[in-house]
Amino acid sequence: MDIRHLRYFVTVAEHGSITHAAEALGIEQPPLSQQIRQLERNLGVTLFERQTRGMKLTEIGEVLLPRARTILDLQAQFLSTAEGLARGERGHIRVGLAGAVPLLPVIPLTIRRFREMAPDVTLSLEESNTPALCAALHEPSVDIAIIRPPFTDPSRLSVFHLLDEPTVIALPRGHRLAKEPIISLDMVADDPLIIFPRELGPGFHDAILSAYQLAGVTPTMGQQAPQIAGTVPLVAAGLGVSVVPRSLSQIHAGGVTFHAISEPAPRATLAVAIRTGQNMPLVTRFVTVLRTACRKWEQRQHDTAPFADSENL
């Protein structure tokens, strides 16, 4: 049965006339009459009583009419959904976020704006560490991952640079350098360095230690934090100092001050990863919007107020 037969059936039923239905459909009357009879033969039922002044539904036709309308509505929904998916305007995407990424204002701002741009898209967010997110892409339990490169297994993943975030030093309140606006790493070489386990973010972990090395000092290793953002409470507890992405200065933990780092200063690099060969227009659209927003953020990162102009993205 051709779906057109149902459309013809519904149109004739709504107009009660072959003549008026043919005009509404933009076809001739004889072919429409033939199509209705063909539908009745295919179904083995009589849908209409042919009258002198029109067409009247039979009892069977009355029963089948709402079902035919339901099928046509489902077809319209199917086509609308397919078109929306093709344009990246419908669907569901799962986004993974590496440690402390949600604290960088450009990320939640971009997610919010994407939802405004594509209100029919469902976004679900998951926060984890870079190795776990790369594994989740392979499974796949996420479609997009915002990670801290590099990572150990880049196979079957396509990775695009997003930005290099400046870092700051977090000091416990009352520290001897608490009033210094800019601090070099050699000035805190004797303070225990609170850092997260390397396996959670090997790229950023190594960048911190390399910066100390370039400054000509070896840090005194202190307690490990369970995650990047977890370093700040440990600093507040007076257990040491930490080098963190500048966005973590938004954490209003009592007992911590944040200070710019003089060169050499590490950068907290972010990238977005997707599965190689990923051809979902929705994923492509989200990645494009994200990369554009991050590129604008990098152009403005020289501003002294962290992301004060975020609304101009």
SSE blueprint and pairings:
Elements: H1 3-15, H2 18-25, H3 29-43, E1 48-51, E2 54-57, H4 59-86, E3 91-97, H5 106-117, E4 121-127, H6 130-138, E5 144-147, E6 157-172, E7 182-183, E8 192-195, H7 202-214, E9 220-224, H8 231-236, E10 242-245, E11 256-261, E12 267-275, H9 281-300
Parallel strand pairs: 3-4, 3-5, 7-11, 8-9
Antiparallel strand pairs: 1-2, 5-12, 6-10, 6-11, 6-12
Helix pairs in contact: 1-2, 1-3, 1-4, 5-9
Question: How many domains make up the 3D coordinates?
Answer: 3
Which radius of gyration do the C-alpha atoms yield?
31 Å
Please report the distance between the alpha carbons of the first and last residues. 52 Å
Structural class call reads: alpha/beta
Tally of separate helices: 9
The top-level CATH class of the largest domain is Alpha Beta
GO molecular function, one term: DNA binding
Protein name: Transcriptional regulator LysR
Family: Belongs to the LysR transcriptional regulatory family.
Keywords: DNA-binding, Transcription, Transcription regulation
